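SEVERITY: medium
COMPONENT: batch folding queue
REPORTER: lab tech (J.R.)

DESCRIPTION
The queue accepted two submissions in a row. Attaching both inputs and their returned structure tokens so the on-call engineer can compare them side by side.

ATTACHMENT 1
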Amino acid sequence: MAESHGPLSSFEAVGAVELTDPADPRAEVFSGLTDAALRRRQDAAHGIYLAESSLVVRRALDAGHRPHAFFLAHRYLDSMADVFAAHPDVPVYTGTDALLASVTGFHLHRGALAAMERPVPRPVDELLTGARRIAVLENVSDHTNVGAILRSAAAIGIDAVLVTPLCADPFYRRSIRVSMGAVFRVPWTRIDDWPVGIEVLKDAGFTVAGMTLGHGAITLDDLVAEEHERLALVFGHEGAGLAAETEQWLDRRVTIPMMNEVDSLNVAAAAAIAFYVTR
């Protein structure tokens, strides 16, 4: 039962349960579990992901994602009261900042966390229907980069994002936070058969252009001048770049011209430039 803090505590007002023990089984979904383990949990048909910060939690809910549980620092309870009222059957847990940090293993950004049920993955064909500009992330391994790319994709109007099997998870907590919830606003899914799946993009009418530093690549300006009706931009791993096999499947190999002996850009920066120039 929630501890009393005056005539009517914030805990009681929103129906929150005060947790005091980091080992409390009710906090298990927020503690010590890797994101891979969360995906395997049977609490929801397709696993669970963690949304961090009140803004990101609200954006996940606005996208229609279903909450599994909320966990907030004391001072954020009142500001989220409308969210709790809209989901009366979802448990709300609260605790001190120190407790939340102990449970989660990290300093909680803006004091709010929600365990959300993963939505059903959408088929690739569904995302391609009606799309004119898409991005493909091939084995991008850094969750910060994935989040930043998704944020740029949302801001600049990319219609869909596909991620290959070895790409970092866009629903990883850090990816979501860096994207500021943009991951919920850009349709995305995994394309499992890669790079053979490039044929699916070509069959749908896309010119498939891979960003590469390799010799013989055309410039991004040259690609824009070709005025492709449907364009798929492929971005590779932060270190290795595009796989050699992938390059053999591409319609275009494209590079961003650079000066002052700079030979490469961070993949998230390169993606933002390519999105803007080809918008």
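ATTACHMENT 2
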Amino acid sequence: MGQETVGDAEPREGLKADAIGFLDALVIGLNSTSPAYSLAAAIGPIVALVGIYAPGVMLASFVPMLLIAAAFYYLNKVDQDCGTTFSWVTRAMGPWAGWLGGWAITMTGVLVIGSLADVAVRFGLLAAGFDGAANNTAVRQTLTVVVIIAMTAVCVIGTEMSARVQDVLILAQVFFLLVFAVVAIYRVYAHTSSLDEVVPEFGWLNPFGAGGAALTGGLLLGVFIYWGWESAVNLTEEVKDSATAPGKAGIWSTVVLLVTYLSVGFAVVAYAGPAFLAENAGEEEAVFATLAHEVMGGWDWIVLLSVCTSALASTQTTIIPASRTALSMARRHALPQGLARIHPRFRTPDVSTWWVAGIAIAWYLIVNQISENALFDSLTALSLLIAFYYALTGLACALYYRRHLTESWHNLLLIGVGPVVGALLLGWLLVESVTDMADPENSYSGVSWFGLGPPLVIGIGIAVAGVLVMLFWRVRSGVFWQERRGVADPALVPRRRR
């Protein structure tokens, strides 16, 4: 990228261009979703809701993700900005909506980084046989902070180093998951399962088998196990062929995730049976630890290490979208200019990266003082932020390209209708999430905060805090709010071949 100019500021060094390639971006997109950890945390609750139709719900949940991934691809073609949703929504819908989209992305990182590092530490200790240390709160929290600091340092030192670490972690994770799935399916057909085995059927792919409220609840859980793939696009300014490669990496990430989730989902449901998974749904990722021992016996450390590497990888990659979004906002005067600093040697956003990590550590430690359930409640609140900025991106895609949607069926369906349908589906899930979270009994804590469930209160609190910060910065510096909505460059709009 060389030097770039930020508004009317002096030219400054930009992020390191061509630092990584398509495959590196794909790996980072995959690791950001933390597939092993996501499966461990979600498979029990999904099965509790829809039974053997869990694979079908995972398949149905993939649809809005693919549609939004298409929006990311086409918006990135016309604007390779590491702020992604923040930049695109600003251009399509104006600075107020863009700022709130950027705030949502940044806060998702703050909420989840501590929890991911905690899971990495816990499962790493269990895999090494240090069960006592894994259950010791002081030891686990101390190691969690160390892990966050270490992963942040890797992000700051360089995108290439981050990619190399991610390559190793994804290989380990996918290999361990594959071994687990193969052994589980083999034991089902060999009738050696230690639990209530069920021979898998293609009918399990029918998401409407459960029907009604059960399907809605399952989709709420299923959609968010795909969250994180867009980290590949947040690196757009640092990826070779930045106009297309990051967007393709995002789309392929969702496809690879679908295959992974369906494979392991079939294996888990077939081996354990829906009754066992439903009974143990409240234990979250602990269910995977139990299944690991049941399926692998003395080799259960393989699955434990898979969850550990998954959470460890996601700890690092989740820092990327939050820090890059803060960088993008700062260099357009939507946040303090200090956050736009690029390290002169590593050419990474060191200030914004350390700020994200520092706030995430503070959130993790403070919420843990309330209770561990409060930490889980804060993770549940993630669904509100994720649905909001994904839906906003889908709408922004159609609005940005609005003058070109009728030029071809390709444009109308893939750039217009698809992203809007994805946005509407996520909007519906957002409303359903709010309704569900309003009931305190649906929270991990099971307590009432101001008459509402803690996750909804946390979500509302983050939204209110965002509006207040935005208004304060609008008064402090009005430069960003002078930006006007842009129009897609006709030269970059896909044309129908003659």
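NOTES FROM REPORTER
The CA atoms of residues 330 and 337 lie 5 Å apart.
No errors were logged for either attachment.
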